[in-house]
Specification:
This protein has nine helices and 15 strands. By secondary structure, the chain is of the alpha+beta class. The strands form two sheets. The chain has an eight-stranded mixed beta sheet with strand order 1-2-3-4-5-6-15-7. The protein is globular, with a radius of gyration of 20 Å. The N terminus and C terminus are likely disordered.
């Protein structure tokens, strides 16, 4: 059941959705009086097992809103919600690049929130593709390696289309979890991917692509709309078909679809600017650099502190944990 927070012109709901060990994922949404969704984000709640009274939250995607005022209102609602729930802090990473818009959002938030804010120097980076240009120009900027891989996928009879049915969602989720198992990583479970895909389609928050060979789904991707920007959120490919470069074709078709729908920017979904050569993040970087070599930095992360003393304890505990894992 959703939790509703009152006190604003619009309605704010928090949907507790799925659990992980030591954390909870939620959807936060803002609706107008006409029940139109004005914005949403995904929030992860975490706690320290040995210090269960220290609870923190982090906005891991968003807020995604069409208008700045809705974004400020949603952020304010989230801040008040977690303050009332006696959380220690809330980490916010705006999905806007550095500049006037992100500064304006934080300035408005500072006006309405009575909490303390700490800016975190480390900034998120991504790669942008400007869609306000002919599609041929965009393709011409692809590397020769990428063009070769796209051609290879087409020659191997890979088909790319949008996912529209529950059966396709379930097949895509199975491919994703299979990929994670083969790489010994855990980000989202099968059920979480299904829930996320249903949310994207039901709320018209973006689109989902699939790649198939002879009717079998071998890969796919989730793409989120943020106003006139398309963001690449999650990708998957079946490890049994790793010799087929289907991910290259999926992203190429997602860029084409975004261009056709008159989006202005395609965001490659993050870029590990400080990754070292040989790291997993570096290999992902090299894949994305085939599409764009235009690094863009997002606004600085902001930590909203509700309980300053506990926040200091949390930072010390986190520092000790990091030392043990180095």
């Amino acid at each position: 059941r959703p939790t509703r927070a009152n006190g604003f012109m619009n309605s704010f709901f928090l949907f507790p959705n799925f659990l992980k060990s030591g954390s909870t994922y939620n959807y936060a949404m803002l609706f107008s009086g006409k029940k139109e969704m004005l914005g949403y984000c995904i929030i992860i709640e975490s706690y320290f097992r040995k210090l269960p009274f220290i609870k923190t939250a982090s906005i891991i995607h968003g807020p995604i809103c069409q208008e700045m005022q809705a974004e400020v209102e949603l952020l304010n609602s989230i801040c008040n919600y977690y303050k009332n729930k006696h959380f220690t802090s809330l980490l916010i990473q705006l999905r806007h690049i550095e500049g006037e818009k992100s500064d304006s959002i934080l300035k408005e938030l500072f006006k309405t929130c009575s909490f303390s804010f700490n800016e975190i120097p480390e900034k998120l980076c991504t790669l942008f593709i400007n869609l306000d240009q002919p599609l041929d120009t965009i393709y011409n900027n692809f590397t020769s390696v990428l063009k070769k891989n796209i051609k290879s996928a087409i020659n191997k009879q890979v088909q790319v289309d949008e996912i529209t049915t529950q059966k396709e969602i379930m097949e895509f989720a199975a491919v994703y979890t299979k990929m994670c198992a083969s790489q010994n990583i855990y980000l989202y479970s099968y059920n979480e991917i299904v829930e996320l895909c249903n949310f994207v389609l039901n709320e018209n928050a973006g689109f989902i692509m699939k790649s198939t060979v002879q009717g079998k789904i071998i890969g796919g991707g989730i793409f989120i709309h943020q106003g006139k920007k398309t963001v690449y959120m999650i990708g998957a490919s079946d490890p049994e078909f790793k010799k087929i470069p289907s991910s290259h074709l999926i992203l190429s078709e997602a860029i084409k679809l975004s261009h056709e729908r008159h989006q202005e920017v395609f965001d490659m979904g993050g870029f590990s600017y400080y990754a070292k050569q040989g790291e997993k993040a570096d290999s992902i970087n090299q894949f994305k650099l085939n599409f764009s070599s235009n690094p863009i930095f997002y606004a600085k992360k902001v930590n909203v502190v509700f309980r300053p003393v506990l926040n200091k304890i949390a930072l010390v505990a986190l520092g000790l944990k990091n030392k043990r894992t180095d």
